[in-house]
Every structure is written in C-alpha cells, then in structure tokens.
Amino acid sequence: MIEISGLTKSHGGRPAIQDVTFSVAPGRVTGFLGPNGAGKSSTLRILLGLDRADAGTALVSGRPYRKLRNPLRTVGSLLEGSGAHRSRTARAHLSWVARSNGIPPSRVNEVLEETGLAGAARKRVGAYSLGMGQRLGIATALLGRPDVLILDEPVNGLDPDGIRWIRHLLRDYAEDGHIVLLSSHLMSEMAETADDLVIISAGRVITTGPLTEVTAGHPSLEEAFFALTSGSRP
User: Are 206 and 8 in contact (CB under 8 A)?
Assistant: First the structure.
C-alpha cells in the first residue's frame, strides 16, 4: 500500500503542499486529480524520493522509497518525461536500465512489444514524438514488473488509440492486484479510468473516496470537482 501522511512542503517560503494525507490500495486505479500547480507533482516527487518533505511521511509497502531494496522492481514511475538521453535508442535506454537493476534482457523485448515501440526500438529518442516518448517512459516504468505503478499525466501527447491503450493497461494492471496511482488534471480521462479519487487543490487534499461517491449528486466529475474546490482555488 502507498501511505501518505501529513506531507508538508514549501518552496521559497511559499507552501506547495500542506498536510497532504491519503492512501492507495492494491487492485484499484486511484486517480490523483487537481489543476496545474495544485501540488500533485510535489507530492509525487517526495513519494519517489526526489525531494524531501518539511514534515510528514510517504511510504511504499511501509518504507520510504530511498530505503527500498529493489526500487525498480517495487515501483515503476513516469514523472516528467521518459528520462532517456536523446542520442540513445529506446532499446539502448531500456537495456541499460535493465542491466543496472538486474532485470533479464528478455524483459526489454517484452515491454517494447507491450508499449507498441518494437518497430521504433532502434530509433534515437531525440526523433521521437511526444507520444512515443510517453510510451518509452511507460515501458521503463513497466520494466521491473513492479507491484506499484505511479504515472504522472501519462496520456500527454498520446493519440486517441494511445489513450485507449493506456486506459486498458492501467485497468488490467490494477485488476492483477497491483497498486496504480494516476496523476492528472484531465477530468474526462480520470472519469473513464479511476476507481478511487484523491482531489487536491491549492496544496490541500479536498476529498478522497470512490469515484461514485465523489461524483454523487453531480452530473459529471467536472461539476463535482468545481463544486468541491470552489472555496480553495484562488
């Protein structure tokens, strides 16, 4: 389980997140929803060990990310692009990540096929479209067959076929008993994908719960979101 409790972080004296608390259980897709600047990225960076909180804890299976013994086999993540050098090919990038994490080379071919990149595996990443770069980032996240999948804006740059593909991938991954945390500001896509929601606005968690409960009494997730956050947005 992902357990986030009391996370607080300021940048240059300005609060980015305040007392952020929520949990993510296996077997369901949890959507982390909020507008740009709401604090989603700050929360995920702390969860993934890329930043330190001023207060609070962020744990994966009871441990901070930096104390996980096999991080890539425990957590697969996509945050701020694929992370691949533009001069490398997709295959070279994935092969290097696999070797450095003790993952069999055969897994590289599997994720290339799974993400639809097999035909462009020897193409330099610098020539990739935004959507192809997203697919490579997702391939990297899947490489270690992790128990936990954390994706930030994964549909960014994907065409309609790609959006449908990632939607099914996330649903299948959760149904296999894994933990899936999906961060986005796209309410229409979240309504199609998420089982549970964590809504954040102006650095604070506004509400958490099953999608059906969060949207109860509202014609859409968008209407529910604006009703719930009307007092928190500047």
Answer: no
Query: Residues 172, 178, 182, CA angle at the centre, nearest 5°?
Result: 75
Strand-strand pairing, 2-11 and 55-60: antiparallel
* Residue partners of 112: CB distance under 8 A and separation at least 6: 90, 91, 94, 118, 121, 139
> How confident is the model over 124-151, as a mean pLDDT?
94
Pick from 133, 138, 137, 130: nearest CA to 170: 138
- Residue 197 belongs to what H/E stretch? strand 196-201
Distance CA 43, CA 8 (A): 9
Encode pLDDT of 14-71 as tens digits. 899 999 999 999 999 999 999 888 999 999 999 999 999 999 999 998 999 999 988 9
Domains and CATH numbers, the chain: 23-52+148-234 (3.40.50.300), 81-146 (no CATH)
- Tell me how long the chain is: 234
Single pTM value for the model = 0.92
Q: Using 50, 70 and 90 to split pLDDT, how confident is the model at 175?
A: very high
**Burial of residue 3 (number of CB atoms within 10 Å: 0-12, 13-18, 19+):** middle
